[in-house]
Amino acid sequence: MKKHTGKTLSPFLLFFGLLFLYGCVANKNTAIDRKMQNLTARYNYIYNSNVLLTEYNETLLQSYADNYGQILQVYLDPEPQVNLVLTPGIENKQLDEVIFKGQTIINEKSFSNYIDDSYMLMGKANYLKGNYFISSEYFDYVAKTYNNNLKTFVMAMNWKARSQMQLNNMVVADKILDTMLRAADDLKKDIAEPLATTAQMRIYQKRNNEAILLLQNAIRLAPEKQLRIRWQYILAQLQEKEKDYQNAFINFTKVENSNAPFEMYFHANLNRIKLRAIISGYKINEEQALLALLKDDKNFDYTDQIYYQVGELFYTEGNLVKAEENYQKSIQKSTRNQNQKALSYLKVADLNFKEFKNYIRAKLYYDSAVTILPKNFADYDNIVKKTNNLQYLVDRYTLISKEDTAQFISRLSEGERMAKVKDYLRPKVEVSNPSNPTGNDLLSNIASPNQSLNPNLPNGTGNTFYFNNSAAISNGFADFKKRWGNRQLEDNWRQSARSSAQDNNQVLAGSNVATGINPSNAQNTSTDNSQTSIEKQFIDNLPVTPELLAASNQKIIDAYFEIASFYQQELNDIPEANRVYLELLKRYPENNHLAAIYYSLYLNYKDTEAGKSNEYRQQVLNKFPESNFAKSILDPAYSAKQDQLENIINEQYNKVFDNYARKDYGNVVKQVNENLLAYPNSDLAPQYAYLKAIAIGRTSKVDALLTEFNSITTLYPNDLIIVPLVRDHLKYIDANLAEFKQRPVALIDFDSNEPRFVAQNPIADNKPKPIENINAADNKQPKTVTKPADKQVEPTATIKPIESKPASIFSTATSNTYYYVIDVADASLTLSSSRYGVGQFNRGNYPDNDLAHKLVELDDDQLIYVTSFVDLEDAKIYEESIKGQLKNIMKVPVTKYKSFIISKENFEKLTDRSRINEYLEFYKNNY
Known about the structure:
The protein is mainly alpha-helical. It has 38 helices and four strands.
């Protein structure tokens, strides 16, 4: 037996062991040290880091959820955020280990040849963690420090461009890619990823043809098989989008025959079938081929997408009813893929909006789509705008339905009335009928106040129905709990772990129209939710008197008129506008909008039915010869002349006001008389007369002032700016007449900025009183045809996904101080007379609310703001009251100013025009 205990270690092994140990602990710039550092850095750190990144990417490939409803991302990256939200990088042990290894090489292997690789590894790890700012800095450092190494430079620039794209700095990223491509011309290998990154940029820029060429080259050069398959699919998507169906079909077929992930294989097959139908023109076979996919159990989770593609086939061949039917099936079958459900909602909405002209139905589906679609979805902002505009129609059709219902019930006997109210207020579900998609019904089914888009619901009757059998329910619940445990009743309940997107998108299949009943004289919504209390309130508010019935009729008239104007001006749907105008004339042949209706019908029929057009033309000329409509018919340039005249009148008023501010009262009286003689019917006539009255009050005794004030109330009884103020003046003078009689001149105190004339009660505290809408009880003057889309309309009640708001310096947090702001986009204009007009309106209409108005001057804008309101609702009521008077209050062109509501905290952040524009966008999206 051999003895080994006396053997010594081989000198060769001992030498290399010591050398290895030396290489690990030493950090010297010697030839041996550099070799050892290269050896250990490459095989102990770089190699292991690349293994960790490969494992991470393989895991990401298994969990990454692609949205096949749009062009896929070139890499497995999140889509760039429209409004960047900075978040901490994700916690991941693999990526943290890669960063640690990179830092170790830099700190301990500083003389090795792998420092650039270390920075690249750290940049990639931070990129995958979502730390795009940090990753961009790493790649920028590598590109600048190692620019003599062409491959390293190109790869660093490639990843830097990807980082900037994720930060939504598209202009910066595009410049980086241009620099990279110029350098990459001399690179013979490793060019596939730079080409693919550039293709992604071209996709973002909607330069699809360039992206196609780049991807074709990238696919040819790509070393990694899964990337080639993914890029081949994206190439096919782009070719389909550019209507190159033949090549798209070829590439989808290649993906289908490759080793693609199952979901990609399924969608490639789905698109291949659809494109074959488009190319060959044989619809029936392709429809059958698509529906045959439903028989394969593997496709169970893709039923919604199959029906969607069938709908696309029918849409392509023009069978719109069948197309909608299949889109509806897609919605009903969509339980997991919220993106697909959103696309199907959008298709149904577009069909109803563009083809069927059923705007009420379109609004419901747009509303549902918006609740699910991500904010970076292409054309998202336009969809939201369209939804908000269509809300205008829904609100008015709903109002007509409510008022018609209230009038119908008020005509019943008391016994019948109570029964009908109980039936009306009982919640019901109306099933939508996609087979009759045309026409805009008035939502006037008095038995169905609560409408929804929910699909068919089971209605069981008798004990044979499962949910009427308590024993069956009990057994079923026990079996369910034994198998699944305690699961919440919700979509995707089988999944114990879901993505945040799934959690955020638990929404109904449709949107609910707000159907709260507010008959014509309803004042307050009852806080008591008991059915009896609601029924009693409803009955009490029925229009049972002639006055209340007239008010209810006026609401219906105004709603019809506004609907028709919206169809005509915003939707450019002339036939539908004519239909509503004629319906209004049929129901209410005598109404306060006749001149505007006749003029609109005259214009609408002008190019199609000359006889009808001439008939309505004569109606305007014969019945309303002094109206602006008649003058416009006789003189087509009348409107332009009126605009020019209004600007002249404003300029003249400003000159008078300048003399008033200088206390040149004699010239004030003279100029007012001249202007009233020249423009007796001007909307500014009451304001001219008021300046004259105050000027006389500053120079004459009280009797002359009273004469002027009484003349104003007599000549301009319907004015809402000056007359309320003058009436308060008269009350104060009457209460203190003896004192006024003793004065040498009626008005002895004067403050050119803010003359205080109205007696105000002492304010007990600093809290402003609630604002009342001065227009609420007034009979409005006949309206001209205006664009209603500018009006901010409260959206109907819908279930919105819980999602984080885009980052903004502005906040939606509730405040205890709100301002009403008029932004004048011209710093050179003098606003003294306009501010005076705001003050007149406030003192005349809200004398007890202690409202003040102030001016803030920015570089390019001037902000007149009214302060302050205790809550947003008060500010909105004030906005509604002053909105109709702004044209007469502001002595500047209407194109120069806009108004909005803002909290005190947000107002302090308005520093320049860009901030104002940013807030206006924020205001539109959040209020």
